[in-house]
Design goal:
Blueprint lengths: L11 E3 L5 E3 L3 H21 L9 H25 L13 H15 L9 E2 L4 H20 L8 H24 L5 E2 L5
Antiparallel strand pairs: 1-2, 3-4
Helix pairs in contact: 1-2, 1-4, 3-5, 4-5
Length: 187
């Protein structure tokens, strides 16, 4: 299979079910932003090196969890790429949101309480997850424009995923014994 098709040379692309739209269509922007976040998560995972103070079992578990997140982001993109009125082949479910919430709660118990704003940074993997979090927030803002055309669970999932990535970044900093970067009072 060739990577290039030449079908997009005129500035259009195909949605699921074959409808052609301009590459600046809101749907393309939304699922493209999810793809961008997915790449940022992949980069963050690549930064998980042996210098972390965690067991091999914990590292494997964390990587598996992030792989599931990446796979679910592909499904979010699929829903965003499905035109209104067409069948979505795979849909998010409330269990996907509650799974994120359970993990957030588990990590939160192991973290110090937040007393001031935290700036993105710390361990390279944590910084990468912070970047992914901000990209997910952008995807959510874009997807709002499709609110009436997509399942409401997509917006809920994107919202919760950004929270999840924030806490995951904090968790990485905690177990790697990296200090979180705190917003200082600059007055």
């Amino acid at each position: 299979m060739r990577i290039y098709t030449r079908t997009g040379d005129e500035g259009t692309t195909s949605l699921i079910h074959g409808k052609r739209v301009l590459k600046n269509d809101i749907r393309v922007d939304a699922y493209g932003t999810c793809d961008e976040a997915n790449a940022a998560i992949g980069f963050a995972i690549s930064q998980l090196t042996k210098d972390l103070n965690w067991s091999n079992e914990l590292a494997v578990c964390f990587r598996k969890e992030m792989k599931v997140i990446q796979e679910l982001l592909f499904h979010v993109g699929s829903e965003l790429a499905t035109p209104k009125g067409k069948e979505v082949t795979w849909q998010l479910k409330s269990i996907h949101v509650s799974t994120l919430e359970k993990q957030i709660d588990t990590w939160q118990k192991k973290l110090p309480p937040i007393r001031q704003f935290i700036l993105p940074g710390g361990h390279p993997a944590a910084a990468g997850l912070h970047q992914a979090r901000t990209i997910i927030r952008r995807a959510e803002r874009i997807a709002i424009a499709l609110k009436d055309d997509i399942s409401p669970i997509v917006l809920t999932y994107l919202n919760r995923l950004s929270d999840y990535l924030f806490v995951a970044a904090r968790y990485i900093n905690e177990i790697s014994e990296e200090n979180e970067v705190l917003l200082e009072n600059t007055e």
